């Protein structure tokens, strides 16, 4: 378990967490911001997918809980490459009433601390659809920098959108982490 200022990251418990996660990935407002397309969700297939992601050797997935113990989302490192020292992050606060209140930033900062300190990774990548300003702001706050744009990469409901590519390096990040943990908000 990793404890931040607002959240705790704990292992996923598929039996306990699955129905809640299913609700989130069935929510149009949530899907809108993800690479996923809107389509009927088959419960068993999604359960298997969550199990695969959570047990995949090249991924580490955490459930995000508030410090009071409410499960509000998921965050993880994927495509972990120990040779290059890289991974890709993905974060989902599924419970919308927690959006824009600093929970995503706290979860991401903890995940980066884990990636850099525990896994000894050195470069973490992320991709965001251009209109997802909340995610962009959240990542910039965590130290990611925009490295480029994949033009009209994503199709969503009749339009093509750019994908913004971001990355954060371990070098220099620890200072940001110490400042973040010191700051009282
Ligand atoms: C993206 C996500 C993880 C961010 O977590 P969060 O807890 O909502 O984000 P935070 O509150 O920590 O930070 C968001 C920042 O964006 C700002 N913000 C919030 N809503 C915004 C909006 N509509 N437009 C622009 N900025 C916005 C916030 O003010 C905050 O910045 P600030 O602290 O400098 O004011 C979460 O919103 C989420 O899971 N959304 C749905 C799924 C998703 O988009 N996943 C990421 C895919 S790349």
What does this structure look like?
The protein has 185 residues and is an alpha+beta fold. The protein has one domain: Gcn5-related N-acetyltransferase (GNAT) (Aminopeptidase). It contains six helices and eight strands. The chain has helices at 14-25, 28-31, 43-55, 103-118, 133-141, 173-182, and strands spanning 2-3, 7-11, 60-66, 71-81, 86-93, 123-129, 145-156, 159-169. A hairpin with a 3-residue loop joins strand 1 and strand 2. 27% of the residues are buried. Bound molecules: coenzyme A. Residues 30, 33-34, 91-93, 99-105, 128, 132-135, 137-138, 141 line the site of coenzyme A. The site of coenzyme A has 21 residues, from strand 5, helix 4 and helix 5.
> What's the N-to-C terminus distance?
22 Å
Strand percentage, roughly? 25-35%
Please report the first level of CATH classification, the CATH class: Alpha Beta
Any idea what the CATH architecture is? Answer: 3-Layer(aba) Sandwich
The succession of helices and strands, N to C, reads EEHHHEEEHEHEEH
Number of distinct beta strands:
8
Q: Could you describe the largest sheet, including whether it forms a barrel?
A: 8 strands, mixed
What best-fitting shape do the alpha-carbon axes yield? globular
Strand ordering within the main sheet: 1-2-3-4-5-6-8-7
Protein name: N-acetyltransferase domain-containing protein
InterPro entries: Acyl_CoA_acyltransferase, GNAT_dom
GO molecular function, one term: acyltransferase activity, transferring groups other than amino-acyl groups
Pfam family, one: Acetyltransf_3
